[in-house]
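[agent] plan:
  1. take the single chain provided in the ticket
  2. run structure prediction with default settings
  3. attach structure tokens to the ticket
  4. add a short note for the reviewer (M.T.)
[agent] executing step 1
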Amino acid sequence: MDHCHNYEKTYSRRDFLTKTSLGLGALGLAGLMNPMEALGKSNFTPVGQPHFPPKVKRVIYLFQSGGPSQLETFDPKPLLRERNGQDLPASVRGEQRLTGMTAGQSSFPLAGSQFDFAQYGESRAWVSELMPHTAKVVDELCFIKSMYTEAINHDPAVTFIQTGSQFPGRPSIGSWLNYGLGSENENLPAFVVLVTKNKMGQPLYARLWGNGFLPSEHQGVQFRAGKDAVLYLNNPPGFDPEDRRMQLDYLQKLQEQQFNDTGDAEINARIAQYEMAYRMQTSVPEVMDTSSEPEYIYDMYGEDSRDPGTFAANCLLARRLAERGVRFIQLYHQGWDQHGNLPNAIKNQAKETDQASAALITDLKQRGLLEDTLVIWGGEFGRTNYSQGKLTKTNYGRDHHPRCFTVWMAGGGVKKGFSYGATDEFGYNVAENPVHVHDFQATLLHLLGIDHEKLTYKFQGRRFRLTDVHGHVVKDILT
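[agent] step 2 finished; step 3 output follows
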């Protein structure tokens, strides 16, 4: 009785108005958007309405963590070979901020790439000898050679390109898309993350695919290689699906009662996550089992595709997830941070990623999926044109370089066999058509039918968006 009396004393007029607005108002809105969900028949988040007709339905983002060198992959600079060992002119470097790893160098010797480039396809795109498989699909690719960022170190740079802010705590791209567009498959998450196993490099944190201040059901779900693809998904020993169903039904009743008492929307988010996990007990094993794939598919993606958890196997899984309506599929591949021993290290990175990346493009195209899928390849920044540390005839390293780097896109809505933007002859500054990280993000959202200025969420009194208060759609690369 004392507990009830205390509750009545603390239950204010504001509490009443809050509860009724969340209850009756939310029920009315839910009834308009999804009558079945309003009646409690489903916890499935319906597909949202884009602002305008989208060019693509889904995104596969092949993130190369560490910062691949554009000078060894897609942006050849003959002048660096001609002036190999000469000091970078101060007029070119200007007032560029340097990392603590090279700021103390007494000289900045230009390092020409040790790898040859050639032009391929009808588009005559330049590709390094490191990427022979990518060279075969250049006429499907749209290169952006004038990307730039404001972050010079890994963690803020990766956080920036993945969340739109250099500071932790913002929602990731996939979370924004999940929040804005919902899901196309009630049995799989709208946002799935795949990380290459056994790779050393800059650390990857779960906040990179986190929901930030958005409701928690919008966070990315990491699928892992091995027995338990999703942690804590399977029932414990002696617990069958009927037991789990009964437990969830009782738990939902308790949580609904708690929601009625508090009006905390996060409670409903938790119910939705429990229900999704229950459905995933069947759907995840099915999508992770690639044994039904024909031999020619394994041959296309490369021998590593037979080894779960490798980049090649994850590319194959990405195609399977795309077929099943997963909206945002994020792959992370570490190891591109080559401050030293770059020639040997980048060979290994290219060997691990080149064939599977190209195979993904080919596989999606042959299935009719590429026309409504956007595939992205790139890292968080580029590398310097000068050597970090000692430059020799066979060895050199490159430091972080935010002023210019290259990414490529392929799929619906972007021009095929097209290169946009350019860097100067030293490969140090953007020479034409600069593309900021927020421009890149605005363009990505645009292809999915979203006006980046309208996809907002109010938090702590301010309306936030992925592109903060910046960003312009790069219309020149769009079809």
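[agent] step 4 note for reviewer: Residues 342-366 form the longest helix (25 residues).
[agent] ticket updated
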